[in-house]
Structures are given as C-alpha cells and as structure tokens.
Design goal:
Shape: flat
Strand content: under 5%
Oligomer: single chain
Distance between the termini: 35 Å
Number of strands: 0
Number of helices: 4
Order of helices and strands: HHHH
Largest sheet: none
Helix content: 40-55%
Amino acid sequence: MRLLIPYLFALTIAPDLGERLAKWKPVRMPYDSSGLTAREKQVVDKLVQASRFLEKIIGSRAIPRRWSCTRPRKTRGLSAS
C-alpha cells in the first residue's frame, strides 16, 4: 500500500472534464417484466443481486476507506441483533 501513495497524489483531474461528461447523456432503461415467466423474473432478480454484490466488491477495492467505514464493526460481548 505504501507504494501506491505517491501515485495517488500524482493523480489529476482532466482539465476538459466538463466537456467529457457532456458527451454522456442519461439513458432511461425501464424494466418491463410483463413478458417474462416466473422463472425468468427470478433469474433477473438474482442477476440484480449479483450486480449489487459485485458493485460492493469493486467499490471496496477502488475505495478501501469507504468500505471500512460502512462495514459493521465487531464488538465484544454484543450481538448484532
């Protein structure tokens, strides 16, 4: 981790960031499950769960401090219930 610290300080934001972001537009992607079977709906739900799980993993690797702040801390003698 010590080796990464100098590189983190060397990162800079692109001067044309506003222009770059302007090229991307929000896209609505409505979900219509009316044509799906019950099994297909279950598969979609599992895929959504998996994508959220992966997002947490990737986010924790990209921003380790954020992950450590959001994880519940273990305390001695107390249950999490």
